[in-house]
Amino acid sequence: MADRLQKVMAQAGVASRRKSEELIATGHVTVNGQVMTELGYKVQPKDKIEVDGMPVQQAEKLVYYLLYKPRGFVSTAKDEKGRRTVVDLLTDVDERVYPVGRLDFDTTGALIMTNDGDLMNYLTHPKYEVDKVYTAKVEGIPTNDELMQLRHGIKLEGKMTKPARTKILNTKTNENKKTTTLVQITIHEGRNHQVKKMFKHIGHEVVGLRRESYGFLDLHGLQPGDYRELRFEEVEALKNGKANLKVQGRL
To answer: Which residues form the RNA-binding S4 domain (predicted)?
Structure first.
């Protein structure tokens, strides 16, 4: 993807964009061996840029994707056990991307994939309180008092969880007279196996878990294994602290 020369120089850490423009205008910059004094000239990723004979390493293009993670994939870039990773699903993405946070091996749902470290740090830091909405299929029927514990926060491994929002969606009883309940739960932390541990704490094992949304990004239009590139306005909203903008639920 072509980008303006001064912007590429600034992203590579050569100088500020304004200073880079001065270097271009005064003939200090070459592109593929040719002096380039045209401000706004667009360079390609493979172009060779030099400033006073010193090569400029173009910064990797920042990319952003929303993946509908299926079961059977680990949320890492590489797995020492040789299991399939979520990165394997992004078959036509050339950049080296990483998952923002993790979903368990058997958990499905919304997972952001990017190479933007600053955005990853923001989205995963509890103090920014980015909502993550899950649908949990649990054994039995949680009572209001039990769910109230999750709404107030419970102690897991010596540390209190932040208050969660919960809502019972439906209950079903199968032919073996086993009852399960679908519960929508919203949290903004990302502890290991957190949702499963929260429900286990109140006596209801999770037998199925899907993350429906991450901030305002939901699974609408995606099937397990599908992914899409985030739109410019979505990326800007995430970067500007608007990850929790209200969107219509599609649970």
So the answer is: 3-60
Whether 104 is a known active-site residue: answer: yes
* Domain of residue 8, residue span: 3-56
Active-site residue, from 104, 118, 145, 218: 104
The answer to whether the beta carbons of residues 224 and 68 sit under 8 Å apart is yes
87 & 184 share domain:
yes
Q: What's the CA gap between 231 and 217, in Å, rounded?
A: 11
**Of residues 179 and 191, more confidently modeled:** 179
End position of a domain, from candidates 17, 40, 56: 56
At 21, the pLDDT band (50, 70, 90 cuts) reads very high
pTM, full prediction? 0.76
Say if 244 falls within a structural domain: no
Angle formed by the axes of helices 232-239 and 117-124, to 10°?
A: 60
Q: Are residues 205 and 96 in the same domain?
A: yes
Integer angstrom CA distances of residue 143 from 31, 132, 140, 181: 68, 22, 9, 11
How confident is the model over 187-223, as pLDDT tens digits? 988 888 999 999 999 999 999 999 999 999 999 999 9
Is 143 among the domain residues?
yes
Using DSSP's 3-state secondary structure scheme, residue 130 falls into coil
